[in-house]
Amino acid sequence: MANSSGLLKLGTLVMFVSMLIMSFSHGGQAQISCDTVENDLLPCLSFVLIGGKVAPACCSGIQTLLSLAKTKTDRQSVCSCLKSVAQSATDGQLKNAAQIPHLCGVNLPYNISRNIDCTK
Q1: CA angle, corner 56, sides to 55 and 61, nearest 5?
Q2: Within a domain: residue 88?
């Protein structure tokens, strides 16, 4: 059960990163697995869960994921991997996740929400 709970919370973080990487546009075939997304974003999990300070490894993980997600298909794959899990995140978790781009120096042209459309 705790493992399932951890995935739900990680899903929140993945949702905001999915929106971040979807802001870049190219075509192509997906090569990013859900395991890659989870591994890159794992350092962000404690901030999503309890707030505090964003770990430098969290920002590095986001940058790594961004550099990997070069195609639109990659970005859609990242978004779809855990979108359904992110739907179960609490409002507090979403609020914390929404702060991470700013704290890592990344500007997003949209708000983090449960309603992201992974097809766009």
Answers
A1: 100
A2: yes
Counted domains in the chain:
1
Q: Residue 42's domain spans which residues? A: 32-115
Residues 52-82 have pLDDT tens digits of 999 999 999 988 888 888 888 888 887 777 5
Per the prediction, the chain carries an average pLDDT of 76
Contacts of 42 (CB under 8 A, 6+ apart): 10, 61
Share of the chain above pLDDT 90, in %: 22
Category of 71 on φ-ψ map: left (φ > 0), alpha (ψ -120 to 50) or beta:
beta
Please tell me the least confidently modeled range out of 17-21, 32-36, 62-66, 106-110: 17-21
For residue 78, how far is the Cα from the chain centroid? Answer: 8
What is the distance between the alpha carbons of residues 62 and 36, in angstroms, rounded to a whole number? 11
How many other C-beta atoms can be found within 10 angstroms of the C-beta atom of residue 31?
13
- The CATH number of whichever domain residue 71 belongs to comes to 1.10.110.10
Burial of 117 (0-12, 13-18, 19+ CB in 10 A): exposed
